[in-house]
Task: inverse folding
């Protein structure tokens, strides 16, 4: 396969850009090696120990520089 040769082609229909993006995403996920584990989700308990960013709203830019 040469560099100019496409990895896949649409043989029927006219997909939108969003449909092609979904297709590429599905191909990428399916092409992951079977032995490679999926990334572990972060638990709510672990996430609760991380510092939260400043609350959005008026003056949040000012509080973003303050120590937590």
Result:
């Amino acid at each position: 396969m040469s560099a100019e040769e496409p990895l896949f082609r649409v043989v029927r229909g006219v997909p939108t850009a969003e449909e092609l993006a979904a297709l590429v995403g599905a191909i990428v996920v399916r092409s992951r090696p079977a032995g490679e584990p999926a990334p572990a989700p972060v638990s709510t308990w672990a996430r609760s120990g991380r510092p939260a960013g400043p609350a959005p709203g008026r003056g949040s830019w000012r509080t973003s520089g303050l120590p937590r």
Remarks:
- Helices lie at 17-30, 44-48, 60-63.
- DSSP finds three helices and no strands in the chain.
